[in-house]
């Protein structure tokens, strides 16, 4: 799988994501007794971000081109690692324990295609439902639902597949997006790429008639239907626009996540010179236009696509391609940014509220908080991040490794 921010990139999967900086407040806990108050206060004093460094600890290896790691609300503590070819592996106690789902026969894998997303139902403990996204032989992006036999079953039934939504993706093999996740509102969000090629020639990302280049928001627990569009979506009452659209103006949202406060952090693939991360608060997300292909990062990309009166949401952090000629600062050089997660775990309380991200091409990962980006830590081939049920942070690399991410003071 090659991650590339260039429209002419081929071969391995393009995981280009531009990272945005956003101020995040760090919660503190009130002491519970006079004896423990000093300890409690000390535990929640934020680790100064300028002195923060990330650490990586190998948890398991032997995966084949893993692209994401996640967990399920099943009470087991299992991790699930998605392999690009169409297989989901189960990890328990630092070892691969088996295959949870294998649909390789249905998946067109290679380049930027493959199995791209996995999301367990918030009520998985009782519903036993999960959703995956993958590219099928004609290049279309498929959202499908599967069922497990029980909460703790070692496998999900491949025969239980129900196709929920198909997003046609003709002409090009790149910019598929495909990551999925449930929002705090209980709806399923799906990020789609602009259809591939360079420069979004059909202008899919700005067209509300197309599902490409969007953040979609759907109700996948709609009685009698595989899905329906919430009435609160911005175009739900439109006679011409697609009702599934939540936000427009994306190029290739390879990886994104929700913080516990509802903010959606979206890593979007850049074109020629810039990568970006958008941080969109839940209260103002509806109908946001993230700018592509009028804008690339904080810069105008195609002025002809810019519409008078349209408000474009600027990224919170921008990275630059080192060879673009843009005078790229050393620590901001990236060409395949991998959007990550805001850390909310308990192991490193002084680092709660810190956003973690990476870049596939340079093999570096960073921490970001309150407008400050740390010096990078090396993690070659990083392709995706994820969290366990306790919001502890993990990463996978295309070389086959699963790593636990931690924090230390430099």
What's the arrangement of secondary structure elements?
Layout (H helix, E strand, L loop, with lengths): L36 H7 L8 E10 L4 E6 L7 E5 L3 E6 L2 E8 L12 E6 L3 H4 L1 E7 L5 E8 L7 E12 L9 E6 L5 E5 L22 E4 L26 E3 L7 E4 L5 E5 L5 E7 L14 E2 L2 E2 L16 E4 L16 E6 L12 E5 L4 E6 L2 E2 L3 E2 L3 E6 L5 E5 L3 E9 L1
Antiparallel strand pairs: 1-27, 2-3, 3-4, 4-5, 6-7, 7-8, 8-9, 10-11, 11-12, 12-13, 14-15, 15-16, 16-19, 17-18, 20-21, 21-22, 22-23, 22-24, 25-26, 26-27
Structural features, described:
It is a single chain. The protein is an all-beta fold. The protein has a single domain, classed as TolB, C-terminal domain (Neuraminidase), CATH 2.120.10.30. The protein has helices at residues 37-43, 124-127, and strands at residues 52-61, 66-71, 79-83, 87-92, 95-102, 115-120, 129-135, 141-148, 156-167, 177-182, 188-192, 215-218, 245-247, 255-258, 264-268, 274-280, 295-296, 299-300, 317-320, 337-342, 355-359, 364-369, 372-373, 377-378, 382-387, 393-397, 401-409. The two termini are 33 Å apart. Strand 8 and strand 9 (156-167) form a beta hairpin. Strands 20, 21, 22, 23 and 24 form a 5-stranded antiparallel beta sheet that branches. A 4-stranded antiparallel beta sheet has the order 1-27-26-25, with no helix packed on it. Strands 2-3-4-5 form a 4-stranded antiparallel beta sheet, with no helix packed on it. It contains 2 helices and 27 strands.
What descriptors fit this protein?
410 residues; mainly beta; Neuraminidase; 5-stranded antiparallel β-sheet; 4-stranded antiparallel β-sheet; 2 helices
